[in-house]
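agent> Task received from the user: take the single chain below, predict its 3D structure, and emit structure tokens. No templates, no multimer pairing.
agent> Plan: (1) validate residues, (2) run structure prediction, (3) serialize to tokens, (4) report one or two observations.
agent> Step 1 OK, no nonstandard residues flagged.
tool_call: predict_structure(input=
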Amino acid sequence: PGEVSNSPAFGEVFRTVTDRYDAKEYCKDCLDNHKHVVWTEVGLYGRDQLRQCAAWALAGMIPVVSEDVQQEFKNEKFVAFHDIFVRNAFGNYFDVLKEISFSPIMADQLSYLESKSHAYIFSKDDQKISRADENFAREVMQLFSIGLIQLNQDGTPILDPATGNPLETYTNEDIESLARAWTGFDRSPARSNIEGGTSQSDLDPLRIVPNWRDAFPKSGLNGGFIGDGFPLCEDLLLERSFLKKGARYRLLGGKSSPELMRDPAAFAKATNSILRAEIDPSSRLYGLLHNGGDHKLAVELDDDLECHGIECRVDALRVVKVGAVYYEFVERPCVQMAFYEGGKKIQLRDSFRKFGQQCANPKLAHARESCCRRDRYDEVKMAMMESGVTYLYEAERMTYGTARERCIDYGKDLCVFRSVSASPNDDDFRKGYHWTNQDCMILMKVNPDGHVAIVHDIDTFDNDATPYHLDVKHTVNWFRVFWDGDGDYPGSSDANSCSANKCLTMDDGSCLCQTQVVEGVVFSGNDVGSISKKDIMSQLFIGAFGPSSGSVPVSGGNDLIVHIVGDTMDENTVFEVQDKGRTLHLKNLRSTVKLGEGWDAPPIYHEAEHASSIVNATVGSKNLLTFVELDSYESDIEWSVTIAKANTYMVSFRYALEGPPNPLRLFVNGDEVQREPTNPTIRVVDVSQRENLNLQRCESCNEGPLDECATGLFCVTRSRNTAEREVPGCQLGGVDNSLNYCADPNDYVHGVLFRPTGNGSSDWMYTEPVRVGLLEGENKIRVKVPHSHRSGPNIDHMKIKADPLFTAVAPPTAAFFRNPPHFMSLIADPAGAGEQNLRDALYETDAVLEHYFSHDNMAPFLCVRLIQRFGHSNPSPRYVTECTNAFRTGYYVSGGESFGSGQYGSLEAVVAAIVLDSEATGPALAVDPGHGGIREPLLKVMSLMRSMEYKTRIQDSSNGPPVAKDFQVRLWQMDDKIGQMAYESPSIFSFFLPEYVADSGPTLSAGLVSPESKLVTMPNILGLLSGMFSLIKLGLSNCDSGFSTNPGFSSCGRDRAFGRLFYQPGGTTFYEEAADLALLLTAGRLSENNLALIVNACATQPDKATRIECMQQLMVSTGEHHSTNFVTHSDKERSTGGVLINSQVPYKAIVYLYMSGGVDSFNMLAPYSCSPIDVYKRYRKIRGKTDDEEGVGLPLSRLLEVPANNPTQPCASFGIHENLKVLKDLYENTIFVAGAGFLFKPTTKKK
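)
tool_result: status=success, residues=1247
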């Protein structure tokens, strides 16, 4: 953003090479320093000084640590980062937050670059456990937006009534949760017109890799979730959002592949054969997008449109063809609920695809059709989809209802299929996830902390069919929820164990629970006036597309309108709320997740090959799976089953069947279990003349590839003289006994019905459960092939679980939580087939930033810090309140002039409130000792150079090639000399802390903060004064500890400099000259006493030039020059302490080792010899040691043993890292303090 092209008119003003071989000189002077030159030149000569001051203030809040950035010798990326603050200095702070979040510099220095979700790493890196990098998630809150402590609007801390301590704004759990929102960021590809040299750009905004992104719900601050207040995606589908006011379309031009969503890469290579949604020229949408051939880059609908043609038949649009060009439809931000009812299984094009099956929300357009009938073996083996018939454009997504409707119109239905074929072009890339008719459930795992993980409970063909991130055995994708009721949850205590809540106990100690989603109205009745905005914001979290159709707006007071359908508030009511510059529409609904029916006991599985009796059957195996083949009409299997409690149970079988529906007889303890036929018995009709292929039940049919029987029926193949082969419900009676006929498989009376799965050894599914009564103790369960069939299915195992109809009771606890929303779909995206896309990742990122931005702390936190950067270290509560109001309203009025955009977060209003407030301009406060602050060292230098009119002056007669006259304000290594320089912050906490209190002086006793005092050290003071004296006397060079480098000509003196100060004060007397200088160098604050002293001290100088230099040197040494307030003189002589010589008092020093954030303290000092608790073994386990992996912990052979000298703790000795031998040698005089955390307040030796 904000990039401009290079201008050849300026010439090559920066040297990119040097003839100096000294590495330090090469990097610092010729490469690294260019960014400092640019910043200094703009600061000195820019005409937009207030903008530059505001930008510098923002840069002080959001600093650059060049040492933490790769290739810090580059310049363009640093300058571009600072331009974020320059460009937005009078814009909106949200834009600042967003741009710095997408900056490669920020991602580099706060380590979220290439951060990937646990789900991605687990699946790609051999099931490795990982966590999102938390660095940026912490600092963006602590330093850039809301701070550590909750604030009133006047900047004072909010105190806990119980303890009197300040309340924190966030917890470590908040950091962990929000860190997952900063996964997926990577550099953009490089381009040739920027400073580079690598394959990735250090300048352009970061891109998001959707597959790297953590897709699970993310809890926010104050008990909410990221996504609260956004409409549900399923509601947008119902509204046909692509035709509604506000719908947006992006021009793709001649290419048809979307940019914010993902299509298979093969689409781009097969453009001519790719069917896209082509808008009819008579459609209003076509007219707006075509625009008479003058296609716009972006189009937003100004009002609702009526559907036309294909627009009326689809659930969603992706890319539309308008004449010869393509537009991508950009769905507005919406969220999905993590838990839902009525799930349906979706699967990739082949049932045997690894990680290819999930449980999808049937109300969302997240899969495609796969047309087949579950009782037709040939259709189960190969389902169909036909271009222009069952799907209207490539990669079309549709809801379950639409998919089924399309297939029924096609003469088929939905089923669980083996493979799917596309017509007329059967390319694999045209397929994706497809709906099946199989029900599935959303379960949850609950860990001991109360965090949950989503589990998709589906009957899969393969053990690896469910992706790891949703698989019950593998998922550890925990996220926080807020348990209501009494706060208990399954596993929270012994009394609230897993089993007490009818949940299963998993191997990792978590509870696996069934879920139930309940939606209910929050506000009822018609008393709108009793509902406050606070009530709405604290109880309604589901957004609405807008007011409901037919609703009437009713005013509910300030910032609140209630849209009611009818006379009372109900599920159709929508609340319209104004909050922090946003208009929110909220549904009068709450979605709650409760514990489901659960299990009295876990299901029991009995493998077929381990059955107590296998008769006339073969034990087979394939792909490491062992099963029993019922390959004879005399085959049967019997299991001996022990039951703890007599009751009714549900029995089902996991099987594979390559053929038409096949029943098995079922016997329990010797008694046969039979089914009731679905239909009444009728006679078979011989239909010799078939006018159509939609034959009804008991009408004769031909066996073959044609689908003669209607949906739900199959053609029974009979053999002559085999009367038992017939299906009850169809009576032959007088017709040929060998006649085939259409039958309903549900009419089989045998106990268990097995429907075709596609393949007899690789496609596995469960039968519908059969309810049976079992006795306490041993039971016999047997299945047998009926004489009417030649063989039966292959059986993997039998599953027995308690019958919920007779055993389920309500869980003993009222554990429930609000259903969490999330932006990113959980449907993985292999090769463009899934739903994880860039659009939703961008929406989620904006929502996270909006979450910080709209926090109540945002305005006072920002105001206090910006006011400090403008020179007022201790602003009054009234001053902060004025600034806070300006931020929130977007306006500030002074002297009849209005400043600001009127939008929440306007920095123009904020800056105006800071610089025009009476506390900044009133003369009375200037004499208050607590007013103002210490000036920043770099700003003192810039003030001297600007006020004293620094100009570049390089002699033309210098030896060597001509020297460029422009851009020679070459301040060099200022951070080493004065402690401060642009782009050279020592840490992400900037040069000084806003809450810093000097450890001596009157500010300590007065309790006043003085951030800039942190840089008031002896080396910095000497470096600052020496450099300013050199600049005044000799110009800008390296002479006498000057601020610059060697210009390359002459020896130290007045002529050896890049430039000089040229200001000549006005006045006819020495006093008038001094007063003129004092006005510029001390803003007129120099006391008369100091002014007289300076005049007298410099009056003896031989000429005006030396006299002015003398005055300038003395003035930059005064207190008035170094602060922004008047200096109060005590008129007392300053006392100097004596020097202790040959003191007999023992002396010790504390030596700090600054590791710059890279030290792994757990490998610096580790347990070594410990008992009775083996702490070393536990240390190695925590650090990743397993039977197969060593982890990152250090073996004893790499540790230098030292004694603990502390009998009260379990370790007799510790180990120091093998490379830190110096610490071992010093250990006799060294103390290790491990795990102490941060020192957050002063301490003493006694403490």
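agent> Step 4: summary for the user.
The longest strand covers residues 647-656.
agent> Done.
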